[in-house]
Amino acid sequence: MKILVVGGAGYIGSFMTRVLQEQGYEPVVLDNLSTGHRASVDKVVTFINGNISDPNLLKDLFKTHAIEVVMHFSAFSLVGESIQAPLLYYRNNVANTLHLLSAMADAGVEKFIFSSTAAIFGNPVEVPITESHPKNPINPYGHSKNMIERILEDLSAASGLRYVSLRYFNAAGGHPAGTMGEDHRNETHLIPLILKSLLDTGKEKKSLTVFGTDYNTTDGTCVRDYIHILDLAQAHMLALKYLISGGVSDCFNLGNGKGFSVLEVIKAAENVTGRKVPVTYGERRSGDPAVLVAGSGKIIDAFNWKPEFDSLEEIIGTAWKWHSSFPEGYND
Ligand code: UFG
Q1: Residue 200 sits in the same domain as residue 292
Q2: 264 in the same domain as 165
């Protein structure tokens, strides 16, 4: 069965592509390589270098390949950047997704898995954050994802489209074999930045700046819920099977349900690597809620999803294997 993986050369999309291959599906990757890496996708996978804003490309793609389900990972996802450049975010995350959904409708493709985010909830009024938590995004990134959730709801009510929206908390980690992992050209995420600060790549070593020490948390630093990339991919596999077997449209929060502060993540990285993280303390980063922890009970009950990598050390250990094996990232 052919599955279109839009953004299949990005961090999450490339793991998804690999898991689809391993589980006997035929992924077709569409990626413009603006942030992704060709080398993160197996050469045997059909790879189309292009944009979802190109209606002719999408028309041809759906005509050439008998796609049954679309998984959509191609979005910009940095809160700070979205505050600086909202048009970029609304154009890529909203307008381009509408192009994709239109082409799917024209081609009669009616199953869709959407990458949503904890950022649709804004500052939590209660933690853990369940699906019934009010949705009040506080930045353009969160708004852009929330808008698509709204559009999907309307589209699903008006047409044959069925979708699953998965609201990720903090995706992290690498392949246990050390061959795949996070490689952002402009890295902003905590775990890769910590691990890169421990590597001597010949470049000037950078210390890790802790953004804010005066939050209302146990140690004053932000608390996040880190979910291993393969557990996240497995949740997509379950969502895929659910849609294939006729499941109705639905949304699920997706995290481990455990929160770790920035200082706890640094400590865990030191335990895993046996090295001391060079730390400096800075101001709060704008747009950061103090605590984001998922209530994942709904997806656990509905799909019997169970995270395999449920300790922070395991998650960081797989990331370390990747960064220490490939300090310069993918070779492309
Ligand atoms: N942090 C630091 N120093 C750094 C980088 C990060 O202290 O150099 C802190 C952040 O302030 C935050 C935590 O580490 O408290 C995690 O930050 P990340 O940038 O790794 O991840 P975010 O929590 O900002 O982002 C994640 C997803 C986004 C999503 C967001 C919801 O990656 O897609 O959660 O707020 F929108």
Answers
A1: yes
A2: no
- What is the chain's mean pLDDT, rounded? 96
186-221 pLDDT per residue, tens: 899 999 999 999 996 666 568 999 999 999 999 999
| pTM summary value | 0.97
Q: Determine, yes or no, domain membership for 40.
A: yes
- Asked if 167 contacts 115 with a C-beta cutoff of 8 angstroms, the reply is no
217 lines ligand 1 (CB under 6 A): no
For this structure, is 141 an active site residue?
A: yes
Q: How many domains is the chain built from?
A: 2
Q: Residue 314: give the domain boundaries.
A: 190-224+257-325
**Among 11, 89, 141, 226, the one annotated catalytic:** 141
Q: Is 119 in the pocket of ligand 1 (CB under 6 A)?
A: yes
> Which residue among 149, 170, 197 has the greatest number of ligand 1 atoms within 8 angstroms of its CB, and so is best to mutate?
170
Give the domain CATH number at 201.
3.90.25.10
**pLDDT tens sequence across 100-119:** 999 999 999 999 999 999 99
